[in-house]
Model the fold of this input.
Amino acid sequence: MVMPSSDWVELNFGPQHPSMHGVLRLKAKLDGEIVKEIEPVIGYLHRNAEKICEMTYFNDNLIYFDRMDYVGAMNMEVGYLEAAEKLLDISISERVKWIRVIMAELSRIAAHLVWAGAYGLDLGMLTPFFHCFIEREKILTIFTEVSGSRQEVNYMCVGGVYQDITEKAINEIEDFVREFPKRLKDIFNMLMKNDIFLSRTKGIGILDKETAISYGVTGPMLRASGVEYDVRKAEPYLVYDQVNFDIPVSYKGDNLARVLVRFEEMRQSLKIVEQAVKKIPDGPYFNPKAKKSLMIRMRGEGDVYARTESSKGEFGVYIVGDGGVKPYRVRVRSPTLRNLSVLPELAKDVMIADMIAISGTLDLVFGEIDR
Amino acid sequence: MIEVKEPKKKIPVVGLISGMLTVSKYIFKKPVTVQYPEQKPELPDRFRFRIFLKLDDCVGCTLCEQVCPNHSINMQKVDRENPRNKRKIYPDVNFGTCTVCRNCQEICPTEAIYLDKEFETARTRNSFTYSPEELALKENEVIK
Amino acid sequence: MNILLRLQELFSPLGHLASYILAYIFESLFLVIFVTISLIVMIYVFRKYMARVQQRIGPNRVGKFGLLQLIADALKLVGKENILPKNRDDLPYKLAPAMVFVSLVLAFTILPYGDFFYLGSFTVTHSEVTIILLFGIIAIMPIGEVLAGISSANKYALLGALRAVAKDVSFEIPMMLSVLAIVMMASARTPSSLSLESIISSEFLPYGILEPIGLFVFFISMVARASYTPFDLGESDSELVSGHSTEYSGMRFGMFYMGMFGSIFLGSLIVSILYLGGPSGPLESSLGFIWLIIKAAILVLISFTVWLSMPRIRIDKFINFGWKYLIPIAMINLILAGIITLGWGL
Ligand code: SF4
Ligand code: SF4
Done:
């Protein structure tokens, strides 16, 4: 028997719901266990970051970018600096580029680890979460070693990085590169060997290529739908054209494909870090043109748009400068917002459990969606 | 470009059991937890949290106030003899909003304001603002 | 000689009736204490086990090694304010947790524990049809969960209750079918094949070895009964907040919580009694109880590992699994049991 739509039960998931990463609210219309319609409501973590960026100096804005994708902060900094350095016309040395690549990739691993653990929790697995976070903690220790903070690192700055990478940090990174694959394999096995896990992900939430492109989905989600697009390859920034890595793709487009693509991405990131640590050249870690005392005197004019590949997808930053010491306008293209917008399309006529499983694979981080 | 492979099809229960073994294997490993108050974690060299101020070095240039992204720093009048600081203004720091971005330390021309490893700043007072004199004190000397 | 008779002997100066009544009361008390203590130990072990598997330490603050943590938690639950939803259906709302807990304790009165040195058996109820009694009482527990879900006027709870009903219907049939196989096999050797005690005493090999399929089906049903992770459909904390117990707080919630752990323990005990020979083992005479507990403890650890390593199955997949796989398997098991019984009878 088909229920008329007036008999659908309306149910709110979130903003305080155990599996709504952060503060997502989903208004779902249910027909029994079947989700008929779903409407994401965002804005519970709105902090006005774009507007605040207009009121602080170019260099100070970094801390607001740290807080966008707070699980992978280094990637956000790279994204902002790509734009800001173009606007301010400040070049960076080779060494800085390599340091940034290492940090961005470590940060990508850290972000994917959070996702993997949380996805396990979404499906009801308690254990992988902790193993993911134990590994993530090692990355955060490396971040503390180089920058002084764990999560909101504020490590990079216009013209370079605040502090040079130390020998000790490089040793720690090498240790991590050596030991991580073992644990990654265990985490991977915990999920992938499990038939129930496979039955929850295989063939669920299929996102086809056309829908993905028309919604502007990027990142691992897009690659899982069979589009071979990654900014790191398509438009290399920093030194991504000098390292050897592959972009994982899958043509299935279901939950499992997204999970596998993310796990493969972690392995590839590790490969990048491994190469980068060996290749890192000597040189200054800071462009003297942007030296410390000039931090509040850098002026920029014109507008630039720069895009980078964050752990969630294509992260774009648009900055307009009017010749002052503060940006005139900062605009962020958040990948997660586009990825979220496809959820009503994916979670149509699925069961509640699948809806949760699908929204888990979107890898939502609300700092970035609401900004 | 590499295509990721789906795991191969297996006999049903075998995968479940090997997953269970992977999980239970870790029971023999050492826990990673640090028992915090008794056992302090080994902090990385560059870890910084609490802000300190050398009152004698501060020249009252207000650069730190300008550069602080959250306006955590405000200049305060302090009645204190310091030939280098004619205006007698010194920064205070509101730790409630400070994000430990270290910009103030970077920009200070005399390195009067700096961050250090101390991080146990829990207090019962209903304000996280450290006055300039308090910033000069060690954490355990500050009245909480 | 069991505890009941010993107690009765102790009270015998009071006359026949009074001494029996007192003996029953005291033994029931004894049992409630036993159940509570074993639950506390179990929850402690679970938390420690979970912590170690996740490379944490687990409770270690209250008392030595955190042994008193559970008592502290229980006190906290008791001391908590009971928040009652406004539109609740009052009587069922308040009855439901008690129903779950009381039926759990009742189920413990029936199990044959075997002897324990001088004390003898803990069993309170002695009857010829304990197997029917036992499964009758076990069937009460889901009703409590369903009542809780329906009466608390919450959509999450309602969905949880609906899931719980669907789940219970689909696993109880294979469960009973596999029990039937045991009764059938026992009936060839003992006249009172509905009594757990005679089922155990009449076996020459544990039934788990004779019919591993039955063991498998029954163990899965027991996992589903206790509703922990692969089958915690009624609760499913990442989907329905916490399902039927969403609106409960304080000790009422504690009863559901204990009900769940109690079900794990009960399930392990029943599996070890029916399939693994229960209290029998080497040095049988006075160690029956210890053997039973050891067997149950191993099963409990296996259950915990299952809990910690599996994701939640989807409700329709579980119903499919129940009706399309478990029931046919249980049927095959029944046929195999029939063949074995015939061979045995010859
Ligand atoms: S560390 Fe950053 S936020 Fe804190 S007072 Fe200094 S400039 Fe302000
Ligand atoms: S602390 Fe440093 S930057 Fe701040 S007012 Fe004093 S001298 Fe200037």
User: Anything to note?
Assistant: The mean pLDDT of chain B is 81. Chain B has four helices and six strands. Helices of chain B lie at 12-25, 63-67, 103-107, 132-136. Strands of chain B lie at 2-3, 50-53, 73-77, 89-94, 113-116, 129-130.
